[in-house]
């Protein structure tokens, strides 16, 4: 029996392709602010299977517009970050009035003048 001789086809060597485009820092920041970046992690301190401390870290980095799209706008309702929501001047006036009442209840501090020391000389004898 004659079997046809099959010659194997040579295997093509595949080259490793490298990306030729590089991103600058500005491109990376633009992408992060546009899409958003979430970093989450937990830190637990245990000794002998007794949990002493747990710290949960949640970090979101994005643009203000992206945050508003996600429904995050806590800076608009915070009285510490929004001057329109800062404590009213009525509270400040009430505090100042209370301080004035407390100061009026106390006697004024007594002032003691130091005695002047005059050096003893022939022209200025001590009597």
Protein architecture, described:
It is a single chain. The chain is α+β, with helices and mostly antiparallel strands and 127 residues long. Among the domains are: 27-72, no CATH class; 73-105. Helices cover 27% and strands 18% of the residues. The protein contains three helices and two strands, in the order αββαα. Strands 1-2 form a two-stranded antiparallel sheet. The chain is elongated. The protein starts with 24 loop residues before the first helix and ends in a 22-residue tail after the last helix.
Please supply descriptive tags for the structure shown above:
single chain, 127 residues, alpha+beta, two-stranded antiparallel ribbon, 3 helices, 27% helix, 18% strand, elongated
Topology:
Elements lengths: L24 H11 L1 E11 L2 E12 L2 H6 L19 H17 L22
Antiparallel strand pairs: 1-2
